[in-house]
Design goal:
The protein has 17 helices and six strands. It is mainly alpha-helical and about 550 residues long. The relative contact order is 0.13.
Amino acid sequence: MKKILKYVLTVFIAGTLLNSCETTDLDLKVSPNDLASNQADPNLLLNSIQLAYGTNIQVFNNRAAELTRIEYMNGRNYFNAYPGNTLNGVWERLYSSGSNGIGDSGVKVGIFTNVSTLESINEESDTDFTFHIAVGKTLQAHMLMLTVDFLGEAVFTQANNPVEFPAPMLDDGQSVYNSALNLLSEAEALFAAEPSTQGATDFFYEGDTGKWIKLINSIRLRAAVTTGDAASFNAIVAGNNYISSAADDFEWQFGTRDNAPDNRHPDYADDYQTSGADIYKSNWLMAKMLNTSDPRRLYYFHRQSETTPGAEDSDGPNEETLVCSLAPVPAHYAGFDYCYLKQGYWGRSHGNNEGTPPDGFTRTASGVYPAAGLFDDGSFSKVNLGRGGKGAGIEPIILSSYVEFWKGQNAIATGGDATAFLKAGIEKSIAKVKTFAALDTESDLSTEPTEAEITIFVDNIMDDYAAATGDDKINLFSEQYWVALYGGAAESYNYYRKTGFPTTLSPNWELNPGPFPRTFLYPSSEVVTNSNLTQRTDNKTQVFWDTNPAGPAFPPAN
């Protein structure tokens, strides 16, 4: 961990990330490096924490989604696809330095340092800044858990003390989880007093301490279901004070500004360009939603083409735009959609590392949920700057639909019935997704799925679930969880390593891609500066809660 100054703050924060998409220009007239603790602005420090946290969440969501086929992964070999620098920014934003990413306002100090600085300011000030500290500790706790989930370990006891510990030792995952839970308790006690925001910008809940406490309990729920602590999970549910409705959903709100800084949803910024779409969608997910007539597919994906080369409804293969449309399906892909899908769902399969053809205006683009692009009204219109919802989407973090699936996961693990939770999770997901259509003022929303069509879809899924047994039943539950996680898929990585489901995931493009990553490599930026840390030589290390067999036998789909 790099040595850093203890008291530093942001020079400029772009507040266009609020729902209103207005700009809050927080301009600092003094050099941050010249500030003592009693000169630092607590509101700017809190902004810095929230921005760093939001960027890290994007990284965790994206990497998890790639591994679990919710998004497309480019790379035939798992080890090579995720080198040592994959989580450099995450580590730096948590502990030391690194741009905050969202708005890129030059944040160079980690969450740990800024939370500690807020505590110091509060001790020396007559003004109560406990709201800032409570928010900081809540986000810090969640970030610590996620860091353990992806790396297996994290720094805690020797963190934020570069003078005494210039090369901090890693703490084991279980102890870090326990420390994170303690931070949540400290934050809850502060929120319980309903402290004033003191004019701070709360990007998530606009100063509503009650919603922050619901979030704290929801983070406790995710910890309990991940570690298999059914007693704690059930106790929290019995308390009935967690995220249970869309009104309490925990998410990051993007804006519509396209420069200085660009605060649009990153997927929108990548896909709605004059050169066309840039992101490939996951063939596995699109096929699953197409084959079940899932109404959410029209919100998740915007098709630019009526057909995909090689598909049954096409004129045949096209080597220029889809090379694999000419290739025979390899034996290990038998039973899976290898290269193309019908009805214009144009994406890529897991691990496909072919070059980029001229398909920017034919491949499927990000839809109106969650990226605030275009709703798919069947017109196959082309993407371009400013189309659809202009990027004012969200980064889902913990939604009420996710919590329903956690309840179902807990029920399955303890021999209970997940039926009601499965249905509630699907219905809450669909209800939230449908609200995003209003962001798109140019598509024909009369083509939206009707309530009758949605009811038929839900009933069909529930009928299939009732009829299924054994692994087929768990696979159906897991697949629906995956669909609901689209856009905010960090929890899929935990679930997959914890349960091994769904076993229906398509294989890697490569027959022998190496073992599925049970954790990532240590951040290389930390390895090169920390004499107490040696880089791993593989990705086989298992998190403390992952007690399943070693790879490649587990997870079975890999």
